[in-house]
Design goal:
5 helices, 188 residues, two-stranded antiparallel ribbon, alpha+beta
Protein backbone atom coordinates (compact mmCIF):
# COMPACT_ATOMS: atom_id res chain seq x y z
CA UNK A 1 0.00 0.00 0.00
CA UNK A 2 1.31 3.44 -0.87
CA UNK A 3 0.08 6.99 -0.92
CA UNK A 4 0.33 9.59 -3.64
CA UNK A 5 -1.42 12.95 -3.35
CA UNK A 6 -1.75 15.48 -6.17
CA UNK A 7 -2.56 19.11 -5.36
CA UNK A 8 -3.51 21.30 -8.32
CA UNK A 9 -3.51 25.09 -8.19
CA UNK A 10 -1.49 25.59 -5.02
CA UNK A 11 -0.59 29.17 -4.25
CA UNK A 12 2.50 30.31 -2.35
CA UNK A 13 1.86 32.83 0.43
CA UNK A 14 5.20 32.76 2.29
CA UNK A 15 8.89 32.88 1.43
CA UNK A 16 11.22 30.56 3.29
CA UNK A 17 14.87 29.74 3.76
CA UNK A 18 16.75 26.64 4.81
CA UNK A 19 15.89 22.97 4.90
CA UNK A 20 15.00 20.52 7.69
CA UNK A 21 16.39 21.97 10.97
CA UNK A 22 17.27 25.30 9.35
CA UNK A 23 13.85 25.80 7.69
CA UNK A 24 12.55 29.30 8.53
CA UNK A 25 9.77 31.68 7.44
CA UNK A 26 11.31 34.53 5.43
CA UNK A 27 8.36 36.84 4.84
CA UNK A 28 5.23 37.20 2.73
CA UNK A 29 5.16 36.18 -0.91
CA UNK A 30 2.98 37.61 -3.69
CA UNK A 31 2.41 34.65 -6.04
CA UNK A 32 2.22 35.85 -9.64
CA UNK A 33 1.89 32.39 -11.19
CA UNK A 34 -0.73 32.55 -13.98
CA UNK A 35 -4.16 31.03 -13.42
CA UNK A 36 -6.13 28.50 -15.44
CA UNK A 37 -9.75 28.80 -16.60
CA UNK A 38 -10.91 27.71 -13.09
CA UNK A 39 -8.73 30.44 -11.52
CA UNK A 40 -6.30 27.90 -10.07
CA UNK A 41 -2.59 28.68 -10.20
CA UNK A 42 -0.72 26.71 -12.86
CA UNK A 43 1.00 24.59 -10.23
CA UNK A 44 1.00 20.99 -9.10
CA UNK A 45 2.39 19.57 -5.91
CA UNK A 46 2.80 15.82 -5.69
CA UNK A 47 3.25 14.23 -2.29
CA UNK A 48 4.68 10.72 -2.43
CA UNK A 49 5.12 8.68 0.71
CA UNK A 50 8.55 7.24 1.36
CA UNK A 51 9.46 3.89 2.81
CA UNK A 52 11.19 3.89 6.18
CA UNK A 53 14.21 1.59 6.05
CA UNK A 54 15.33 -0.47 9.03
CA UNK A 55 18.80 -0.70 7.50
CA UNK A 56 20.71 1.09 4.76
CA UNK A 57 20.87 -2.08 2.64
CA UNK A 58 17.11 -2.72 2.69
CA UNK A 59 16.39 0.04 0.14
CA UNK A 60 18.42 -1.81 -2.51
CA UNK A 61 16.23 -4.93 -2.37
CA UNK A 62 14.46 -5.48 -5.70
CA UNK A 63 10.94 -5.06 -4.27
CA UNK A 64 11.91 -1.75 -2.61
CA UNK A 65 13.57 -0.49 -5.81
CA UNK A 66 10.48 -1.36 -7.86
CA UNK A 67 8.13 0.20 -5.35
CA UNK A 68 9.99 3.50 -5.15
CA UNK A 69 10.51 3.70 -8.93
CA UNK A 70 6.84 2.99 -9.63
CA UNK A 71 5.69 5.54 -7.03
CA UNK A 72 7.90 8.24 -8.51
CA UNK A 73 6.73 7.41 -12.04
CA UNK A 74 3.06 7.61 -11.01
CA UNK A 75 3.75 10.97 -9.39
CA UNK A 76 5.55 12.33 -12.45
CA UNK A 77 3.54 10.98 -15.40
CA UNK A 78 0.79 13.08 -17.01
CA UNK A 79 -0.65 10.77 -19.71
CA UNK A 80 -3.38 13.06 -21.08
CA UNK A 81 -1.36 16.27 -21.01
CA UNK A 82 0.50 17.46 -24.13
CA UNK A 83 4.28 17.47 -23.58
CA UNK A 84 4.50 21.22 -24.22
CA UNK A 85 2.09 21.84 -21.31
CA UNK A 86 4.04 19.81 -18.75
CA UNK A 87 6.67 21.58 -16.66
CA UNK A 88 9.80 20.11 -15.16
CA UNK A 89 9.59 18.13 -11.94
CA UNK A 90 11.24 20.02 -9.07
CA UNK A 91 12.38 17.51 -6.47
CA UNK A 92 15.10 16.65 -4.02
CA UNK A 93 16.07 14.18 -1.33
CA UNK A 94 12.71 12.42 -1.12
CA UNK A 95 12.63 10.01 1.82
CA UNK A 96 16.26 10.59 2.76
CA UNK A 97 15.95 12.26 6.15
CA UNK A 98 14.36 10.36 9.01
CA UNK A 99 13.25 7.63 6.58
CA UNK A 100 16.87 6.60 5.96
CA UNK A 101 16.89 6.72 2.16
CA UNK A 102 20.16 7.10 0.28
CA UNK A 103 20.28 10.43 -1.56
CA UNK A 104 22.21 9.03 -4.50
CA UNK A 105 19.86 6.09 -5.00
CA UNK A 106 16.78 8.32 -4.72
CA UNK A 107 18.27 10.73 -7.27
CA UNK A 108 18.80 7.87 -9.75
CA UNK A 109 15.29 6.50 -9.18
CA UNK A 110 13.78 9.94 -9.75
CA UNK A 111 15.89 10.45 -12.90
CA UNK A 112 14.60 7.12 -14.19
CA UNK A 113 10.96 7.94 -13.35
CA UNK A 114 11.20 11.38 -14.98
CA UNK A 115 12.81 9.93 -18.12
CA UNK A 116 10.09 7.29 -18.43
CA UNK A 117 7.38 9.91 -17.81
CA UNK A 118 8.92 12.23 -20.43
CA UNK A 119 9.55 15.00 -17.89
CA UNK A 120 12.54 17.21 -17.27
CA UNK A 121 13.88 17.03 -13.74
CA UNK A 122 15.28 19.76 -11.49
CA UNK A 123 17.01 18.05 -8.57
CA UNK A 124 17.69 20.24 -5.54
CA UNK A 125 20.52 19.08 -3.28
CA UNK A 126 19.89 21.71 -0.57
CA UNK A 127 23.50 22.87 -0.34
CA UNK A 128 25.12 19.42 -0.45
CA UNK A 129 27.96 20.18 -2.88
CA UNK A 130 29.22 16.57 -2.99
CA UNK A 131 25.75 15.31 -3.86
CA UNK A 132 25.39 18.00 -6.52
CA UNK A 133 28.68 16.95 -8.11
CA UNK A 134 27.84 13.23 -7.95
CA UNK A 135 24.32 13.59 -9.34
CA UNK A 136 25.59 15.78 -12.17
CA UNK A 137 28.32 13.24 -13.03
CA UNK A 138 25.96 10.25 -13.02
CA UNK A 139 23.37 12.10 -15.09
CA UNK A 140 26.07 13.11 -17.58
CA UNK A 141 27.21 9.48 -17.76
CA UNK A 142 23.64 8.24 -18.32
CA UNK A 143 23.23 10.78 -21.12
CA UNK A 144 26.65 10.16 -22.68
CA UNK A 145 26.20 6.38 -22.74
CA UNK A 146 22.53 6.65 -23.76
CA UNK A 147 21.58 4.44 -20.84
CA UNK A 148 17.94 3.37 -20.81
CA UNK A 149 15.69 3.14 -17.79
CA UNK A 150 15.74 -0.64 -18.23
CA UNK A 151 19.53 -0.85 -18.40
CA UNK A 152 19.95 1.32 -15.29
CA UNK A 153 17.36 -0.75 -13.42
CA UNK A 154 19.26 -3.92 -14.38
CA UNK A 155 22.42 -2.36 -12.97
CA UNK A 156 20.62 -1.49 -9.73
CA UNK A 157 19.58 -5.14 -9.43
CA UNK A 158 23.19 -6.22 -10.12
CA UNK A 159 24.41 -3.82 -7.43
CA UNK A 160 22.06 -5.48 -4.96
CA UNK A 161 23.13 -9.00 -5.97
CA UNK A 162 26.87 -8.39 -6.28
CA UNK A 163 27.51 -5.77 -3.59
CA UNK A 164 24.65 -5.34 -1.12
CA UNK A 165 24.01 -9.04 -0.51
CA UNK A 166 27.72 -9.49 0.24
CA UNK A 167 27.71 -6.65 2.78
CA UNK A 168 26.92 -7.91 6.27
CA UNK A 169 26.10 -4.61 7.97
CA UNK A 170 26.42 -0.90 7.46
CA UNK A 171 27.13 0.50 4.03
CA UNK A 172 28.90 -1.32 1.21
CA UNK A 173 32.51 -0.42 0.50
CA UNK A 174 31.71 0.01 -3.19
CA UNK A 175 29.33 2.91 -3.65
CA UNK A 176 26.36 2.76 -5.99
CA UNK A 177 27.76 5.49 -8.23
CA UNK A 178 31.19 3.87 -8.55
CA UNK A 179 29.46 0.58 -9.46
CA UNK A 180 27.29 2.30 -12.09
CA UNK A 181 30.21 4.30 -13.46
CA UNK A 182 32.43 1.24 -13.81
CA UNK A 183 29.78 -0.68 -15.73
CA UNK A 184 28.49 2.15 -17.92
CA UNK A 185 31.88 3.64 -18.75
CA UNK A 186 33.30 0.41 -20.21
CA UNK A 187 34.15 0.70 -23.90
CA UNK A 188 32.23 -1.79 -26.04
Amino acid sequence: MWTLLLFTGAEQFSRYSGYANTYRWAGNHDDQTPRDEWLRRHTEIVAIDALRYRSFLQQFQPDCLSRELNKAFCGFVRPRTPAECVSAVATGNWGCGVFGGDTRLKAVLQMMAAAEAGRDLMYFTFGDVDLLRDVHRIHTLFTHTQATVGSVFSLLLQYYECVCKETRRGKPEETLYSFLTERLDRPD
